[in-house]
Amino acid sequence: MISRNSIRSAMAAALAATLLAACGGSDYTQPAAAPPPPSNGLTQMQREDRDASASVPGLLALASAMLASMTGESGEPRAIDGITPPTSESAEPSATP
């Protein structure tokens, strides 16, 4: 006669084998990476400078991104000599977040 422990052991082994077999392979393929945006011959810093110089929201976005990327004293300072802050004699002052 077959004992209950033998049946439980056999069922546990069969369940484990089934679970391991289900973890086998997969035909999932990584989606293709999106092509980089056109650079128009500009570096990343030059594009950031151009966007920050174009509008106050662009300048605030760059400042926010720079503050968010600060990692203490391990980073190098970023040159800002390519940025010309936008000015207007007639526009209302912008609200800062």
- Rg over alpha carbons: 30 Å
Q: What share of the residues does DSSP label as strand, in percent?
A: under 5%
In DSSP terms, counting alpha (H) and pi (I) runs of 4 or more, how many helices?
A: 3
Helical amount among residues, as a percent range?
40-55%
Overall strand count? 0
Strand count, sense and barrel status of the largest sheet are: none
Helix/strand order, N-terminal first: HHH
Overall pLDDT: 79
Uncertain ranges: none
The coarse overall form would be elongated
Distance between the termini: 78 Å
Structural class: mainly alpha
Notes on the structure:
- By secondary structure, the chain is mostly helical.
- The chain has a domain at 43-69.
- The chain has helices at residues 4-22, 44-54, 56-68.
- Helix 2 packs across helix 3 (56-68).
- The longest helix has 19 residues, at 4-22.
- The chain is elongated, with a radius of gyration of 30 Å.
- The protein starts with a helix and ends in a 29-residue tail after the last helix.
- The mean pLDDT is 79.
